[in-house]
Design goal:
The structure is a single chain. By secondary structure, the chain is mainly alpha-helical. It folds into 2 domains: 90 residues, Winged helix-like DNA-binding domain superfamily/Winged helix DNA-binding domain (Arc Repressor Mutant, subunit A, Orthogonal Bundle); 44 residues. Helix content is 70%, strand content 10%. The chain is built from 7 helices and 3 strands; from the N terminus they run H-H-H-E-H-H-E-E-H-H. The protein has a 3-stranded antiparallel β-sheet. The longest helix has 42 residues.
């Protein structure tokens, strides 16, 4: 999806583009995971990559750049050989931990209910598919 589509939908829904843009940044899966990893303290790139399971090198680079651009992460480069780069949350980034912790707690508490709902939905879909198959076969 491109930025134009997001902006159009946001305006249609009555949201200001700035709010939509902010929610897109902080609601992104990889942003949440990276901020969560950095909550432990400053980390090097490869430490973050190991801590955030499943993230590609490209996605981590893009996520860190976006977080730095938005003032949520500081990038500190040390003049050593090889160069050392640390990433850490800014004060603004640390303020994001409180709502993310609430989301995490909600996810842990409600995961069983969501799994049960998925199973119920899958059964309903299977029954509908069987009815459709038997209806089609009867012709």
């Amino acid at each position: 999806m491109n930025d134009t589509n997001t902006s159009v939908r946001a305006c249609e829904a009555g949201h200001k583009p700035a709010v939509t843009e902010t929610l897109a940044r902080i609601g992104d899966k990889w942003t949440v995971m990276v901020v969560g990893a950095l909550h432990q303290g400053p980390m090097r790139y490869n430490q973050i990559r190991r801590a955030v399971e499943g993230i590609s090198q490209r996605m981590l680079t893009l996520t860190l750049k976006g977080l730095e651009e938005d003032g949520l992460v500081n990038r500190t480069m040390y003049p050593t050989i090889p160069p050392r780069v640390d990433y850490e949350l800014t004060d603004l980034g640390r303020k994001l931990i409180v709502p993310l912790q609430s989301l995490y707690d909600w996810a842990v508490e409600h995961r069983p209910a969501m799994l049960a709902a998925r199973e119920k939905f899958a059964k309903k879909q299977r029954k509908a598919a069987l009815r459709q198959t038997s209806f089609t076969a009867a012709k």
